[in-house]
Amino acid sequence: MNKKINTVLFDLDGTLTNPREGIINSILYALDKLVIKEELVTELDTFIGPPLRDSFLTRYNLTEKRADEALELYREYFSHKGIYENKVYPGIKELLESLIVNKIKLFVATSKPTVFAEQILRYFELDKYFSGTIGSNLDNSRTDKTEIISYAISFHSLQTKNCVMVGDRKHDIIGAKNNSMKSIGVTYGFGTIEELLLHRPDFIANDCNELQSVILNLTTSL
Description:
By secondary structure, this protein is of the alpha/beta class. It has 9 helices and 8 strands. The chain folds into 2 domains: 146 residues, Rossmann fold; 65 residues, DNA polymerase, domain 1 (Orthogonal Bundle), CATH 1.10.150.240.
């Protein structure tokens, strides 16, 4: 018999908050410093979710050293300004309140460096809802979502059969599957519905009301 879900891992960017303005401005700042011209700024949404260093490497065909420089410049802007150019999605606080009332344990699992993720959660007063925040390291290690979820499982002694991962990109779904965890893809973030369906999440939610219904149903019906 399947066990009920009692723990939810949330992605941050594109799931809890909309970081588009801050991330795009940080990328453009880094590109300007490196004298790299970006003709299609609208395509930079693809940077939101995956490990940033990988995105710099592949989009601009950079050397490893130049990618490191790009990431350092990105963080130069992001850590002082871009981090606050961010918005909590409508309904998120109400969703988290509801899950806490229902005694569901919550964690954040993000490819963003832990130090930045924690700062964002404090700034928007979301930190009080979460039992832990697991992100990447500033030395660019543990950036893959599979690794991040695995570390969360190990560090917090989680039982995967009781957990579900919520995210807006394929990396969240893949990471959950690689850790034998159920997943919910949300369509209001930066991943397309086609991207999500291709990787077959267990559930899809189009907004916070649907997400709340799916999670609460998982806590009672399995």
